[in-house]
Design goal:
Blueprint lengths: L3 E5 L4 H13 L4 E4 L7 H6 L8 E4 L2 E4 L1 H11 L10 H27 L2 H21 L13 H5 L3 H12 L10 H11 L2 H4 L5 H22 L1
Parallel strand pairs: 1-2
Antiparallel strand pairs: 1-3, 3-4
Helix pairs in contact: 1-3, 4-5, 4-7, 7-10
The protein binds glutathione and 2-acetamido-2-deoxy-beta-D-glucopyranose.
The site of 2-acetamido-2-deoxy-beta-D-glucopyranose has 2 residues, from loops.
Length: about 220
């Protein structure tokens, strides 16, 4: 029995961040691919409230919600710390992580789905959120400082997933002109061998987002 297991879905940005953290810590784990269209008993029993991936199983004890899983990993395996030690800095890192998941991930996905005037507004609104993150990078190589940390892993979807969303929905959110620091950070982050070595193929993401958008739009069209 593996001590550490990750129940995940290969295209999920929330799951990839967990794998990055475990690799960074040098923790061996077993990865269990979940079929989200036909959820397994192990997922439903481990995360009865949300029934979502990722779930971390540590000696069969489940931990849910990717941000909380990252914190748990950081507390159990002390090597290569992710969160700052200082309580204030730690609270700030958690604040931005929550903000980024609520406003940037969801905002970008919302902007993808929006059309026409609505889309312009949605893009503008996500850009306001990204501007806060851009500011956090002033004078820093990574969000974690000289090394990657908690917030870098949380925002690690930007160079890969956001890039695909931008292509599929034909929109531009983060580029060298509007967010130079974020853009530079994204390039630097995605080139790290550990990060680059654990990403779903771009083509699979393109297909997935294209299909999701088509489906969402057909639902919307049928409601009118
Ligand atoms: N807030 C959650 C989000 C996880 C999430 O949205 N997971 C998606 C996959 S990307 C999922 O399991 N969806 C299945 C469903 O909603 O039925 C986290 O950070 O772990
Ligand atoms: C759903 O998953 C179960 C096992 O968890 C499997 O036996 C069954 O064939 C699957 N059904 C479909 C439609 O894929």
């Amino acid at each position: 029995m593996a001590e550490v297991k990750v129940i995940g879905a290969s295209l999920s940005l929330f799951c990839t961040r967990i794998e990055w953290a475990l690799k960074l810590k040098g923790v061996e784990y077993e990865y269990i691919e979940e079929d989200l269209k036909n959820k397994s008993h192990i997922l439903v029993n481990s995360n009865p409230v949300h029934k979502k991936v990722p779930v971390l199983l540590h000696c069969d004890k489940p931990i849910c919600e990717s941000l909380l899983i990252l914190e748990y990993i950081d507390e159990v395996w002390k090597d290569n710390p992710l969160l700052p030690q200082d309580p204030y800095q730690k609270a700030i890192a958690r604040f931005w992580a929550k903000f980024a998941d609520e406003k940037c991930v969801m905002g970008a996905w919302g902007a993808c789905q929006a059309e026409g005037e609505e889309k312009e507004k949605a893009v503008e609104s996500v850009a306001e959120s990204f501007a806060f993150l851009e500011k956090q990078l002033e004078g820093n190589k990574y969000f974690g400082g000289e090394e990657i940390g908690f917030l870098d892993l949380v925002l690690g979807w930007i160079p890969h997933w956001l890039n695909v969303m931008e292509q599929v929905a034909d929109m531009k959110l983060v580029d060298a002109d509007n967010f130079p620091l974020l853009h530079e950070w994204a390039q630097r982050f995605i080139q790290l061998p550990l990060i680059k070595g654990c990403l779903p193929p771009r083509e699979n993401l393109v297909n997935y987002f294209t299909a999701s958008l088509t489906y969402m739009r057909s639902l919307k069209a049928n409601n009118h």
